[in-house]
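Quick one: structure for this chain?
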Amino acid sequence: MAVKKSAKKAKKPQQKNKAAKQAVKKKPARSVSKKAAQKRKTKPSPAARASGKGKPSPKLLTAGKRKEYLQKVLLKKRNEVVQGLELQLGRKLSYEPGQKMDSAMDNADLSTMDMNEVVDYSLLEMKYEQYKDIADAFRRLEDDTYGLCEECGEEIDIKRLEVNPLARYCIACKTLKEDMERIQKEETRFKE
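Got it. Here's what it folds into:
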């Protein structure tokens, strides 16, 4: 019996050690001061994201305020496009015409330079088209038709216009239009 009692006693301390290990909480690797914790940026709560903290809520804007806000969005986009145009034009104007005529260049180098010029011209043309679209958007803003879907006539969501100030369709109509274009492409592909 003496052997059995000692075996039981030996088991009890092991059980206590397991319980003691489970009860001990791990301490953080390093302590964080209150100021540091306050400075740490956190993600906004879903409620804050839904309200668009810092941006006007589409439901709270009156017609006049909406027009003013959309005008600011368009001005910002126009400034971006103008800066891009100036950059592209500046590169083109600073390019020396005689620079291309290097006798050491072979046909591959010359064709690469020609291709780069075509790409630069295409980028410049795209920026100019955007500029014309912005001018058209300002005309529509003055006519009170900017921000209205050209398909259904409903107001385009402000969030969509913030992301793409040149949007002409609401999300529903744009999705429908893209689906129809995709179907037409598939039909023409199968006909060939």
